[in-house]
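Here is one chain, start to finish.
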Amino acid sequence: MAMVRSFARRAYRVHTLRGGQAQRTALNIATSNNFSQAPQSANITTTSSTSRGNDGDNVFDFEDTKSLFASVSNGKLMHSAATLNVAAMEPMVDLSLWVMNSRLMDVGLFRNLVLTTIKYTAYDHFVAGADTVETGQTVRRLWDSGLRGIVDYGLEHTNDNESCDKATQKLIETAELSQYLPHSSVSFVAVKVTAVCPVYLLRRVSDLLRWEYKNSSFKLPWKQQTLPIFSESSPFYHTSQQPAPLTADEEHDLELAYKRLQSICDKSFEGNVPVVIDAEDTAIQPAIDYMTYWASFKYNESQRPVVYGTVQAYLKDAGERLYLAKKAADKTGLTVGFKLVRGAYMSSESKLAHSLGAESPIHNTTNDTHDCYNGCATFMLDEVSNRPGGLVLATHNLDSAKLAAQKAREYGITKDSQKLEFASLYGMSDAMTFGLRNAGFNVSKYLPFGPVDQVMPYLLRRAEENKGMLSSSSLDRKLMM
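Its structure:
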């Protein structure tokens, strides 16, 4: 592994001239996460709001707000501005979290009152609809405004095969949605492996994969072809002793999980829509990566990947794992796609590591995470610019979006190539979304959907994990006003 890192350092410090002008910078894979520097703060205000690249090309133009939000109705604009202004008030968010986690929610009348309030405020802003019909209407509205949708049935963790079967049927219906909507208006079907495989089994598989990595003589008879899942800097504190082998019933349940994922992929591909598999916390992520790569080997046979995995850049090992997986895929001739996110489990990950006396797997500073995200994005843009592959850049960070847009232009990655998709959550970073659209890029909104009570965990996470980001979303709020 030391040899791999040494090679990566040398290989990705090389700068190659393209077209006599653009210099390539790429990922430094050293464990110190010394990635390409994040761009300086854009410092955007409503009076000076055009972001330009070093070559003077516009990436964002926020001066003409009427044109920027032309596709949004006045009513929707006012509702969004009001919701974001409330969400920027930390005391209000803290109170809302306390209420939704309190025993008062067990009281029927109070619960109905709270859910109704949520339905017409945060739910309407952050959730695409209660079912596939309402979500389809949202996708059409986005398509009419020049955007696409990543559809995501909002069910998360399941605990048994019966729940997995029900969730799989809902995900199949989600995949079918694209067949009744305008061509390419759905960019991806999002799949959570926790909906098709019981969480306890994902923990078991993750433990066994970790133990195998650390002990080369330990073999897993059920393991199928995969890409590298770990690096030397990956967290292994979840598995402190040798796990018991999977039982016959557990192996059978794993086979069922393969079949469920396969059935969703098959239905999605009928509509010519790729699948993106979401990331979870580090306790179960190895099993999710394993199933993602299994599906990649099964389906990614063409020049364009149809199964994408997710890399969380706030993890210290993200850059190494991305590099190792991509280079292993290249060696086997496998086309791969990745969605790059910052991450959504910062508090719980750090608390768990601390409770086990281990170092947090999360980068020590926010800037380290920014550097990792930007470095991984630059590396993948360089990779897909001259060979098969795909990249989804899911971000609400204006600096990262601007840097990636500049790099994409330098590398000649056009909208028609279908190699790059920018994405952000529905109801967030709308100014950046419309700015990227106007700059000529493929842009999607991530569209979770489901009944109010079912998507409560999603809404809680949006409030708890992102209240710092929401309270700093002054650009959206100012431009909307």
